[in-house]
Amino acid sequence: MKLSQLFAKTKKETPKETEVISHRYLTRADFIEQSFSGVYRFLPLGFRVLKKIEKIIREEMLNLGAQEMYLPVLQNKNLWLETDRWQTIDPPLFKLKDRHKKEIALGSTHEEEITDIVRHRVKSWQDLPLYLFQIQDKFRNEMRASGGLLRTREFLMKDLYSFHNSEKDLINFYNKVKKSYFRIFKRCGLKAVCVEASPGTIGGKLSHEFMLISEAGEDKILICKRCGFGANIEKVGKIKKCPKCRSNLEKKNCIEVGHIFNLGIKYSKIMGARYLDKNGKSKPIIMGCYGIGLSRLMAAVVEINHDKKGIIWSKEISPFDIHLIEIGGGQENKIKNETEKLYKNLGREGIEVLYDDRDKSAGEKFVDADLMGIPIRIVISEKTLEKNCVEVKKRDQEKVRLVKIDQISNYKF
RNA sequence: CGGGGUGUGGUGUAAUGGUUAACAUAUCCGCUUUGGGAGCGGACGAUUCCCGGUUCGAGUCCGGGCACCCCGACCA
């Protein structure tokens, strides 16, 4: 992609309504734009990142043996009445009426939907276990949106649901999901902490949250450095000693990016999702559900990986692999020709290159590159061409190195 | 929903109640430039959030709305 063609324009000044760092950088670098309170537009750069995160999550879900589906956003009121969550779920549902004045909800989560599907289809122990997931926009009628993408009223979420014929099988899978979540966050360049949490209005007997330690976070957790115990302060209250090893606990602010729930038979019991076991005895299906907020995750990455100049994307979720800059290539000349050639060659190898072909000063190109945060920067100028080289620099390092142009495809970034 | 704050070109700011609302930046054209937001010249761009009031006169004062941000409860 040539930067001159990209639908994006960086901003020099920080828009005044942006308070948290991720919101500022994502707005200044033109990844996102606010539509109105709690609702955001993903511009081409932001959408690319979102798609990369989605790809990682999808791969990890498929690895767990889960199957991808797509459930409706418009949801039947009657299903919500069955579980008594029509009025009680918090944050509340967005509700609307059709032309016959029938009430409908915009999906904020899909336990009702998925349980409805499963109760009509799963009849036998032989149909279990079953793992289904989707990646879809969710709508939540929050009291207040805040922190840019950190808390919005419409957001992209991955929700996975699992169905089992024994508690033991559920716990086994639950632990697999935990590992899978750690891998997902790691691939996004983050180190997550898993803590005990309270299940809220999703319910169930046990839940764990995946937290990223960050000042911008709204949650507070207590963690034990010695044994690794961790819990949301909401769940355990103001304890000072670790309940497992009696050491002192540390309090940290963090961003919740994932939450997994052992639902037990909460939904299957109410909604009548049952199966026949090996003895022909009817039993409620044991369920789990597992969520990750992708758009929040994107903001969290920026919150954690940035410096004074801008964003620092990790390799797997960066909108492009390489930021290619020409200096002094304003007219048709050797520099421009060499850069074009390199751009095409890298592209042919499947490397996603953002090529800054604009007729702008070197300084401006560097500033934009730093702000956008693509992890590898390659510069071509008269200086480098004298040695038949290009200059390679990593976004998170100061040092630059010269690499022969004809060696660049063998170069390990 | 309670509390606090802010609304002026795309963005950031300025303007004792007094001409045609100013500056920077962004954008467009021309020339000149190219290693850390370059220079010169020209141009485009604003019913000063909305409605009402006070006044000879309102961006500015008053009343009422609306929007957005922050704090609280909640959440991926």
* Approximate shape: elongated
- CATH topology annotation of the largest domain: BirA Bifunctional Protein, domain 2
Strand content: 25-35%
- Measure the end-to-end span: 19 Å
The averaged pLDDT comes out at 95
Radius of gyration computed on alpha carbons: 25 Å
State the share of residues found in helices, binned by percent: 25-40%
Tell me the total number of β-strands. 23
The chain-level structural class is alpha+beta
CATH class of the largest domain: Alpha Beta
Q: Count the helices. How many?
A: 12
**CATH superfamily grouping of the largest domain:** Bira Bifunctional Protein, Domain 2
Main beta-sheet strand count, sense and barrel state: 9 strands, mixed
Provide the low-confidence segments as ranges.
none
Domain count: the total is 2
CATH-scheme architecture of the largest domain: 2-Layer Sandwich
List the main descriptive attributes of the protein structure presented here.
single chain; 413 residues; alpha+beta; BirA Bifunctional Protein, domain 2; Rossmann fold; nine-stranded mixed beta sheet; five-stranded mixed beta sheet; 23 strands; elongated; RNA-binding
Written description of the protein model:
- The chain has 413 residues and is α+β, with helices and mostly antiparallel strands.
- The chain folds into two domains: 287 residues, 2-Layer Sandwich (BirA Bifunctional Protein, domain 2), CATH 3.30.930; 91 residues, Anticodon-binding domain (Rossmann fold).
- Helix content is 29%, strand content 30%.
- The protein is built from twelve helices and 23 strands.
- Helix 2 runs antiparallel to helix 6.
- The longest helix has 21 residues.
- The mean pLDDT is 95.
- The structure holds one RNA strand of 76 nucleotides.
